Amino acid sequence: MLELEKELHEKRELELEVTRLNGTLQVMKHLEGDDDGDIHDKMEKLSEKLEHERKRLEELSGELVRKERESNDELQEARKELIMGLEDILSGRTAIGIKRMGELDERPFQNACKRKYGNDDYETRAAELVSSWQEEIKKPAWHPYKFVKAEDGSDKEVVNDEDPRLKQLWIEYGDDVCNAVKTALSEVNEYNPSGRYVVSELWNFRKNRKATMKEVLRFIFQQMEVPGKRRRG
């Protein structure tokens, strides 16, 4: 990582140098018609230097892209290893834990079934409903998404609120159940759009986002500091 930071700094310096050389060359072009006979030779030398620096910048940029890709691959592998090693230790009851992306939250289903069917075996009905919709989410034939324009102008795929199945679910079971399905759909579309199965992720439950490696390691070290006592990160 230190080597990568060093090369990033070198790239920024090169970009500044190329910009400076290019600006100087443009000024000299305006002076080319003056009496200074040496100006043409200076421009040629400056053009050669500018071309050399541009090539260096191009090569360095390509090398940085390759190294950043390798670094990201290594980071993803490290996250996978941590998830496998910590899945039995971390949970949703801790500040840092494992969140199963694309897995339906059962609580809205239980609450909705209790309201709809009363106390008469509502848990079984809720479990069946969760299982049924979890299977629906996996089906590639169902594509309840649409494209919208993001703030940066790019196309972004989001859950389509007007999807007929989602609208029917909302009519039958209300906002919370429908939102739980939409959340799961968003997660599988982000983490595993081709397979559409549940993926484990290191999660910061306090901030409701993906946990950074620094946060995960800090939390683990905190647990190790006080033997026999679990602390919230």
From TrEMBL:
Every Factor of DNA methylation 1-5/IDN2 domain range: 99-225
Keyword field contains Translocase: no
Alphabetized PANTHER family for the sequence: OS01G0147700 PROTEIN, RIBONUCLEASE P SUBUNIT P38
Annotated GO biological process: gene silencing by siRNA-directed DNA methylation
Protein name according to UniProt: Factor of DNA methylation 1-5/IDN2 domain-containing protein
Taxonomic superkingdom: Eukaryota
Keywords: Coiled coil
UniProt xrefs under Pfam families: XH
Coiled-coil segments on the chain, per record: 4-77
Record InterPro entries: FDM1-5/IDN2, FDM1-5/IDN2_XH
